[in-house]
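User: Could you write out the 3D structure of this protein bound to 2-acetamido-2-deoxy-beta-D-glucopyranose? I've included everything you need below.
Assistant: Certainly. Input first, then the structure.
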Amino acid sequence: MLLLLLLLLALLFQGGDNKDDFQGPTSFYLIQISSFPNSTWAQNQGSGWLDDVQIHGWESNSENATFLKPWSKGKFSDQEVTELVDIFRVYLIGFIREVRDFASVFQMEYPFEIQGIAGCELCHGEAPESFLRGALGGLDFLSIPNCSCVPAPEGGWRAKKFCATIIQYQGILEAIGKLLFLDCPQFLLGVLDAGKTALQRQEKPVAWLSRGPTPGPDRLLLVCRVSGFYPKPVWVTWLRGEQEQPGSRRGDVLPNADGTWYLRVTLDVAAGEAAGLSCRVKHSSLGGQDIVLYWGQPVSIGLICLVIILPPLLLFIGFALRFMRHR
Ligand SMILES: *[C@@H]1O[C@H](CO)[C@@H](O)[C@H](O)[C@H]1NC(C)=O
Ligand SMILES: *[C@@H]1O[C@H](CO)[C@@H](O)[C@H](O)[C@H]1NC(C)=O
Ligand SMILES: *[C@@H]1O[C@H](CO)[C@@H](O)[C@H](O)[C@H]1NC(C)=O
């Protein structure tokens, strides 16, 4: 059954060899963060993601899933979704109980935090890949490929002991395997299709230049801001002529509230050398028509002057003409 599905998917994606223009996410994964501040209190945080777009949340008070997009359930029926949410509820509640019960065996010292990521990814022209990794206190702990458990070196004796224990519960590993290798790819394909319009949309960036806080005497911090673009990949850099400036510093691509992205790229230059620098923005929505903004662009200043001066000037000319006519 699994083989059949993989074969089918492989065939499906073979037809996509010339799919280089494919836009949008290729992976779905769940993130779990479980905090254990002390022996009496613990909390789970959960979320579901398509690459960098969050589509599911987890209400830790009501232990229930939240669906952040109208298409977050993909092609799964309400009943299938309810069953999956039930599985995660039982799992998350059980997780806290088990960790507490085994805390002394594993010599865990409060406070500690456990992180998990599990999901699947469509690989260009190949069968989807699934993954599950766990971390303890920010260090890799284990991974679960192919119904086995592989302790991470950073996990030390605890990870080895954990894997040795879990491997005895083949039922659990098989259930995880079904979720990862069957349900996940099926859900991913469905949700990519259900959310196609939103996920493959193209939103053009808006870019503008400004001056940042002065980095030092006789120096300028040039700031190029780019906002409102979708999807996330974007290329922004400072140039002199066609020459990329190695001092360009790229910030993190940050989310806007409307689901589009924002980026800030700065350049620290000597005050006398700012003229002639430009900020260039390449993005898939621009269809090869890069945005290029020049620092201290005389035209833009000229334009602003024109916009400010023109209306009073016209008014004055109008008055003058009328005055002359009257005369
Ligand atoms: C355990 O941690 C929680 C959350 O930080 C805190 O509110 C609570 O008072 C702590 N309990 C004890 C017994 O320290
Ligand atoms: C979870 O939330 C859904 C609505 O989003 C609701 O229909 C369902 O009854 C809730 N389940 C539980 C167990 O609270
Ligand atoms: C999965 O199992 C196969 C054989 O059972 C093995 O060759 C492969 O390396 C395993 N994959 C990973 C990621 O360990």
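The longest helix spans residues 298-326.
User: Perfect, thank you.
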